[in-house]
Amino acid sequence: MKILFIGDIVGKPGRAIVAQLLPDLRKELTVDMVIANVENIAHGKGLTQKTWDELRRAGVDAGTGGNHTFSKDDARVLYADEQQPLVRPANAYPSEPGKGVKTITTTKGKVRLMNFMGQSFMNDEPSSPFTAADTLLAETNVPVTVVDVHAETTSEKVAMGWHLDGRVSAVLGTHTHVPTADARILPGGTAYVTDVGMCGQRDGIIGVDRAAIMPRFLNGEKKTHDIIEHGPAVFNAVLMEFDDSGKATSISRIDREVVV
Description:
Blueprint (H helix, E strand, L loop, with lengths): L1 E5 L1 E2 L1 H18 L4 E5 L11 H10 L3 E3 L9 H7 L20 E6 L2 E9 L11 H11 L4 E7 L3 H11 L5 E5 L9 E2 L5 E3 L4 E4 L8 H10 L12 E11 L5 E12 L1
Helix pairs in contact: 1-2
């Protein structure tokens, strides 16, 4: 089984580059399933029915969440629908709808998708992602299990990789929007990368117009986030292949840059 995991998709330029590249990539790479982190798809915060439908038409099969998952009211409706192939952090937002794990059927078999949020430097006060992962893994058993760890610090994501090595098929870091160069297979057969990266505006600051972000660092002034909708954009993803037992046999970065 081949799975393509796309990093945090940020606003309209992120959606545009996915729509532009993904149909051909699915054919070129003979992908069986596409998963994307979708917590930033609606103008950089949250998701709406319209933006989620747009990604589905582009070829995204399932979506993971993070700290901005419920920034738009549409998300509550989407996550309340159990037929939607969406997961959100299992260890956060106990009063919100949705689940942190779902099993999704593909043409090559079932994939169990999990989502956790890191604790370090997160304002949402999630419970331990390590304990949450142990609990969910004890409940069901599907050979191919992909985990999205939405966390701020590299150390916490690396720790989760080691904690789950040999117990899941892949541990993939999201949230920082900056791709890391450490994609590899851990000794127990788990594909790992500290951060997949993002799909979005190249010349902003993690996908947001830098004119809205720079004042925060220069004089502490906070401005409303804005996104430049046209111009150079980046596409960051990882392609993984798994054997019948769910062990990873390969992981490689798929990085592109185009003008949208």
